[in-house]
Amino acid sequence: MEEIHLNPTDHAALDMLQEGRCTAAYIAEEHDYTRQNVRNRLNRLVEHGYIERVHKGLYELVEDPRHDK
């Protein structure tokens, strides 16, 4: 899969997911983003395997793409 380009929404979501599981609504509220924007970015991170959906609307970090392998 191609390398993902991270935008500010991705960085905010990844920062919050490092602290524990989050919902798109919570991330959006904390960072003044729209829920749809956050959901779109979370879905992209799921597609790349960096986070996973553990329950409807609840996400957790699998691997932070910002860290070199």
UniProtKB/TrEMBL annotation:
Gene3D superfamilies: Winged helix-like DNA-binding domain superfamily/Winged helix DNA-binding domain
GO-annotated biological processes: regulation of DNA-templated transcription
Protein name, UniProt field: MarR family transcriptional regulator
Any matching Pfam family: MarR_2
Domain HTH marR-type per the UniProt entry, residue ranges: 6-54
